[in-house]
Amino acid sequence: MASGIWVVAETRGGEIRKVTHESLSEARRLADSAGMAVTAVLLGKGVADKAAGLGAYGADKVLVADSDEFEPYLTEVHASAVAALAAGGQPAVMLMSASAQGKDLSARLSAKLKAGLSTDCTAFRMEGGKLIATRPMYAGKVVVEEKAKTDLHLATARPNVMEVAEDPSRTAAVENVSPDTGTKWTEVVEVLADQSGKVDLTEASIIVSGGRGMKDSANYKILEELAEVLGATVGASRSAVDAGWRPHSDQVGQTGKVVSPNLYIACGISGAIQHLAGMSSSKVIVAINKDPDAPIHAKADYSVVDDLFQVVPALTEEFKKVLN
Ligand code: FAD
Q: What is the pTM of this model?
């Protein structure tokens, strides 16, 4: 009989990513409400000494496999290993992040384990020992609750939505494992890492985003300056990306990244449904748009109806005074 909540940890370069702390904290809350235990699966290279520390975020037990073959991430290797462990452990719920890696892994695992999968969830609760997953659909037009028909329910949590709860006094029991990693069909030849050093949009706590209203790529300098003062990451609408002003990795929305920062400042963005699909779960939304009828104002917590070329530099100056 399936029982317990598992979290598949995400690692890069031997470090555990914040999204894992979010998933674990949420797993702890769910497990406490349902009288279950939380197990973390930690696959990576040079991660063994980090395993017990996952207890601080809610893990009761950590299954750790520290091996060269888990770095860099490779779909079939990770999926085979997690599937092999799940077959032995029979979890009822398995959480991952809706990050690029989590989306990739969860889909493969769902097929391998023949388990229901809820993607990009924004809330969870337990009911009668089963997970109820809440997620937006159709570019955010509806919100649905899903329950898996299978014994195991896989789910990915939208990054930055689940609150991290840390209790440094807790440690987890650690079990070293060597799961079967199956056949390796591919090999990573080279990793071309982003050299910009900026925080990825999906993990940023503040985003300053620009749209067609920016009028030219050079004008993004004023957004970069505001972002620098706030410790923010710069994003863009699809129009700005299509115009070649920003790289696609900056695009927020249905066909870009889904973000949930604490603060999203939309500059010269109209608020099309496809853009809202990517940012409407932001905690606080500020719209700077000179058109009072732009749809973004209806979604915003704070609206500035004015010329962004006046407002953004003025904001930067004011924040400098307050934050320096
Ligand atoms: P516009 O709609 O042209 O808005 C520009 C805004 O700037 C206007 O509201 C204007 O009032 C304001 N403005 C102009 N000058 C100033 C100024 N000086 N000061 C203040 N305000 C000013 N879009 C996305 O963003 N992300 C997606 O992932 C995405 N996916 C899509 C997928 C599909 C299948 C389709 C069909 C569309 C998708 N789109 C996406 C496109 C989307 O429909 C809109 O076309 C796009 O979001 C509009 O971008 P924008 O708001 O920057 O431009």
A: 0.88
